[in-house]
Design a protein that fits this description.
By secondary structure, the protein is mostly helical. It has 15 helices and two strands.
Length: 336
């Protein structure tokens, strides 16, 4: 299988969580601020697509599904740029904590800073880029932003938002889980697309996405106060998302694959660049052994990335392998 196994993937999630727990707080904050607008682009495109009065009247399920197809661009931008999103950090950090790679204080700091960093970035994107930019100022878009906000924060009951939020981040964290298990960019994009499209198409609640969708409606005149939005939408969605990501993905797969299973070996053969982030981007491959036909000396190209198309070696592997290691390898095997 040209992907990491679930056991290797949850091991990588633990390592990524450990790295995130040690990130400088200023970098964590600004990296979280950047995640807001990146996710916001997907939110804005989804809201814009939903602004279709005829479809809303005659085929609401169809237009919601079509709009959901465009939302994943937000998470793709977040994941591929390495931005910090609260709703994925609720998976990373608990796994690292359960693996004894960080402390409970590290978890709390990361969650707090990423949450409010996401909020700051999303409100900037909503108000400055979309609000003052007039993206949703025409009649159809303005009315849809108001209707959407009311449908998110007013129509459902508190417990319904909470339960839908569990399902939403269950799918979001599964999307991130599958992206980490994938070995190259196209596979990561495809792996993320379907779970994200599913939660949006089902109308589930994502607390960071709602930081754009509800305030955008308030900006355009929705009858929702800030206090009402915090109590009725933000709090239940945040609690539900935390449970969905931390418990239903992080803790479950930690229990299944990292408890009582011994150490998990993840080798990418890239010459010492063994940080969790580098490992999450490279494939796992068995070493190829060659034997000199003259003297029987053997050599191994462990340290080269395999190419799934055949016996050819990945040019990325050759580029990443340190020059001095390559020279040492060649000098120690003159017969091959």
């Amino acid at each position: 299988m040209d992907a990491f196994t679930p056991q290797q993937t949850i091991e990588l999630i633990s390592r990524i969580g450990a790295k995130k727990s040690k990130m400088r707080l200023d970098k964590l904050f600004w990296n979280s601020v950047m995640a807001g607008p990146l996710l916001g682009f997907g939110c804005a495109l989804t809201l814009s697509t939903n602004a279709s009065p005829w479809y809303q009247e005659n085929a609401p399920g169809l237009i919601r599904t079509i709009a959901a197809c465009f939302f994943p661009i937000g998470l793709i931008l977040v994941v591929l740029t390495g931005a910090d999103l609260y709703t994925s950090n609720v998976m990373f950090l608990p796994v690292a904590f359960l693996h004894r790679r960080c402390t409970l204080l590290d978890v709390a700091k990361s969650w707090f800073i990423s949450y409010f960093g996401n909020l700051a970035g999303m409100l900037f994107f909503m108000a400055i880029i979309n609000g003052y930019g007039g993206v949703f100022s025409s009649a159809a878009y303005k009315q849809e932003s108001i209707t959407f906000a009311v449908g998110k924060a007013v129509t459902p009951q508190w417990h319904q938002i909470f339960l839908k939020a569990i399902g939403a981040n269950w799918l979001v964290c599964l999307a991130v889980f599958m992206a980490i298990s994938s070995r190259e960019v196209i596979s990561k994009i495809v792996a993320m697309w379907w779970p994200i499209m599913t939660f949006v198409g089902l109308g589930m609640d994502h607390v960071i996405a709602n930081m754009f969708l509800v305030p955008m409606g308030i900006w355009n005149g929705a009858p929702i106060s800030v206090g009402y939005y915090i109590w009725k939408s933000m709090i239940p969605a945040c609690i539900g998302n935390t449970i969905g990501g931390a418990l239903f993905v992080g803790v479950v797969y930690w229990y299944l694959y990292l408890t009582g299973e011994g150490s998990t070996h993840v080798d990418f053969g890239i010459g010492g660049q063994d940080t969790a982030i580098d490992e999450a981007g490279g494939p796992l491959g068995a070493a190829h052994h060659a034997v000199c036909k003259h003297c029987g000396a053997s050599s191994s190209d462990e340290g080269q990335l395999p190419d799934s198309a055949g016996k050819m070696k990945s040019s990325i592997g050759r580029d990443l392998k340190p020059v001095e290691q390559k020279h040492t390898h060649d000098a120690s095997n003159p017969h091959v």
